Amino acid sequence: MQKQELSYEDTKFTLDTYWLDPISDFDEPLDHPLAIICPGGAFKFHTDRESQPIAMKFNAEGIHALVLRYQLIDDEHTVYPLALQELATTLNWLKAQSKSHQIDLSKILLVGFSAGGHVVADFNSIMLNPDERKKIFPEELEVQPAANILGYSVIDMTLGWPREEEWTMKVSSDIYYWQAQEHLTKDGKPTFMWQTVTDGTVPVMNSIIYAQKMDFLGIPYELHLFGSGDHGLSLATYVTQNPNNEANLNVYDAKWWELCVNWLKLQKILPKL
């Protein structure tokens, strides 16, 4: 893993990069899809449980991965709109990296968990609408995502998370950014979603309302709701288990990864075997 520092205007942010090395005995160079991962952490921090382990799972499927250390709440900034501007900057930066790192720019994935999922959902809803994007990001979006993956994501910040409106105001004082589903248009990209119905942190209705809006707009989606399991499962295996926390393990919910890989094949991001 290597750190890459980028900036939007006068604000710097960091990417953790997990590049696949070229295979030297191939006759021709092979371009790979790429996943940009936005980990959760309640906009307070970026959890490592949804960072390197997820990136390396993508690598194992032949997909480059970046972990975006997007804007968090601090004394100087709210999360929005800066997190969206950082994600747009990252996408545009990929264009200059496509040759040296063999990136297939037509197969870029945005991946979000929990609070990071809100960043991805807001991007899908707001930033892919050219008229709305120009209000906060006047540059052209030179590289567009092909699809999204959302895990137990916050979609609507009025549905139970955050529990205090004071924290919601710290995320953004502009209610425009609170409800990702309200701004979704037909410009949105296909999306894979998964969550547990027993999620005690982010109400499952978040995933349901985003799927409903996608269904209404005719945007392809796949939604998996598992019958048990806590919030923040990540891979739901021992790889991302916090020591001595059995709630991080769920053999049934861990199937989300296999289902997601199958969906990526259906979307022609990965080849069908």
Automatic annotation (TrEMBL):
Q: Name one Pfam family in it.
A: BD-FAE
Annotated protein name in UniProt: Alpha/beta hydrolase
Q: Provide the alphabetized UniProt keywords.
A: Hydrolase
Question: Which stretches make up the BD-FAE-like domain?
Answer: 32-159
Q: Name one GO molecular function term.
A: hydrolase activity
